[in-house]
Amino acid sequence: MTITIVQARQAKQIAKTTLSELPEVVGIGISKVGVDYAVKVNLRVALPQNAGVPDQIAGVPVVCEVVGEIRKR
Amino acid sequence: MRLDSVRELKRVLPGDIEKAFGVPAFARALPAVARATWRHRKAPTYFLGVAKKRSGKGYSLAVRLQDHALERSPLVEEIARRAKGEVDVRYVGQIWARPRARQAHWYRSRNRPLLIGSSVGFLERGFVMAGTLGCFVRKGRSKDLYILSNNHVLADENKYRKGGAIVQPGTLDGGAASRDAVATLSAFVTLDRARINFVDAAIAKLDGAVEANVSKLTGTGTLAGVIARDLDIGDPVSKVGRTTGIRRGRVTAVELDGVTVTYDLGVVTFDNQVEIEGAGAQAFSDAGDSGSLIVDEEGYAAALLFAGGDHGGSNGKGLTYGNPIHAVLSALKVELAFR
Questions:
Q1: How confident is the model over B12-38, as a mean pLDDT?
Q2: Helix, strand, or coil (residue A40)
Q3: In this structure, is residue A73 part of a structural domain?
């Protein structure tokens, strides 16, 4: 069954409580993997094997991306 | 620092730094040398200059970095130590000599009537900058028009005085108080390092005599109004900005919380942001595009561009971040002007 944005929002809240204190994390939001909504974790630098970041939260896929330092444009 | 002290540091530091770190500096004939050498450089480079302090009193050592890898590096720390902290460090990237006969892009030129997507900025002695005029807004039933852009474009990260002149083009593109003042800073949403922020936004009231084309999206169409729904993953979007002009992209993430953005005032955290990647092989934005209005495929205003990075995205060209437009208009208590 397709994962909805409502499910992704709930998983995002869980991700925020567990991941937002990591210094490498520079954003947690919602993205998509295929047709499924997913939690997106943005990283300033890569974590070794994405340490501490699960593949799924409550059945919602979690994707990590290294986005570097974000600056005013 | 005194001017002669800065000059002396500028003279001796490159040799010392190259001995210690093996990284060459370019201190003379900057644009031409930087370009010629960039083709052959094997290591990240920088150059030094003299900067006037923004307070107007004294001078500091200008350190201009051509590679992000040098930011917060031991090399820069050493330069700062030698200058006793009196440094003005900025990333400028590679510098290209401008062909003499080449005309500036319209979005970096003086435009009357004012156009969405053109160069704009605040005025401060000894400091040049430019951002992007996002669009025009009105307050209540008044017919008065205001420019909408970022706080850091119109209000100098909370520091510019209300009533201060706004010039089009921005000073980096040759704008001057005497001939290019078009508006005055009216209001901004304070950027606050101590709490969660939602928008980087400000408005400047147009001088009565200055005309504006409120709906023309040069090169892409006409501004249709404000988007009625939330942007979704995969939605195609576009923008016109002072640095990269027209760029198209697609939404890669929404409802992003804890987005940490580096400003001159420090790191500021934002919730509920939109993330966009550039289409094809291009980035969606670059420095100077801040304040650009991001519109959907049908020309509806969707977000206000304010930040970005050099990494990520399916094309590897980095990602751009925008404040949802409803949050911007609501925070400033204004309505989009599009007819």
A1: 60
A2: strand
A3: no
The CA-based angle B292-B293-B297, given to 5 degrees, is 130
Residue A55 lies in a domain: yes
**Count of structural domains, chain A:** 1
The model's confidence at residue A50, banded by pLDDT at 50, 70 and 90, is low
Closest CA to B253 of A12, A2, A55, A18: A12
- List B residues 114-143 in contact with A (Cβ-Cβ < 8 A): none
Q: In what order do the strands lie in the sheet with B59-65?
A: B46-52, B59-65, B87-91
Domains and CATH numbers, chain B: 3-91 (no CATH), 106-213 (2.40.10), 216-333 (2.40.10.10)
pLDDT digits (tens, 9 = 90+) for B37-67: 333 344 557 889 888 877 767 888 988 887 7
Contacts with A20 from chain B: Cβ below 8 Å: 257-258
Question: Would you say residue A71 lies in a domain?
Answer: no
Helix ranges restricted to H, B28-70: 30-38
DSSP string, A10-25: HHHHHHHHHHTTSTTE
**Residue of chain B nearest A65, judged by CA positions:** B312
Which pair of tokens denotes residue B245? 């002009």
Å between B181 CA and nearest CA of chain A: 22
Nearest CA in chain B to A19: B258
Quick check: A42 contacting B, CB < 8 Å?
A: yes
Q: Write down the pLDDT at residue A47.
A: 86
User: What's the confidence (pLDDT) of residue B148?
Assistant: 98
Testing the interface with A: which of B172, B254, B263, B294 to mutate, by most A Cβ within 10 A?
Answer: B254
What are the helix (H) ranges across B39-161? 74-82, 151-154
**B155-195 residue pLDDT tens:** 999 999 999 999 999 999 999 999 999 999 999 999 999 99
pLDDT band at residue B28 under the 50/70/90 scheme: very low
**One-character DSSP codes across B161-205:** PTT-EEESS-GGGT--HHHHEEEEEEEEPPP-TTSEE----EEEE
Is ipTM strictly over 0.95? Answer: yes
Domain annotation covers residue A72: no
